[in-house]
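Table S2 (text version). Query chain:
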Amino acid sequence: MTLNQLNETIVACTRCPRLVEYRERIAREKRAAYREWKYWGKPVPACGDPQARVLMVGLAPAAHGANRTGRMFTGDGSGDFLTPALYCAGFANQPTSTHKDDGLMLHDLYMAASAHCAPPDNRPTPQEIANCRGYLVQHLRLLPHVQVILALGKIAFDNTLVALAQLGIPIPSPRLRFGHRAQYRLGPYLLVASYHPSRQNTQTGRLTRAMFDAIFRQVRRNLT
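Corresponding structure-token output:
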């Protein structure tokens, strides 16, 4: 299986009936501000540089963000916070991301998700994350140059640990603790944790621009 074939499989996925119903309903009903848009309304594929040394794992598409635009972290507040940081760190060719044909290109970084469908209230269930986990495992297998995995948020962090275990990588016990800027060496990978760039975190000051820029400098320092 190639990366393109894997992403085609993701886009056609119907494993989670609750998410299928929600993503399609949102695409029909739309938000007033986007009533002229044709929403994507399907699972959002992973994207980025196939030769990437950095794999970034997020949570799930936003209902009126990636579920609308069809590209990870595009068209919502999280993307508006993330993309300038990627640009500043040299992982993106431009500081904005508004739709999937806006010219954004990622360098040395690949974006994946814990769940590829938009969930109600931005909360996929544990079973829905488990249903999607095989795609993350496959991405790890198909991205041979990855050195650093950047997990955005505790759910992505915990899900990544399970995915690595499924690849046969020993995970220390007791379970590794999530914390902003925490990092752990796990087999061939360095797992780095960050707060998720959700509005809940960025608008309250829990995650500032300086903190997020520091995360990407930390990632850069650990690339060889």
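Notes on Table S2: Strands lie at 47-48, 54-58, 109-113, 148-152, 183-186, 189-194. Residues 126-142 form the longest helix (17 residues).
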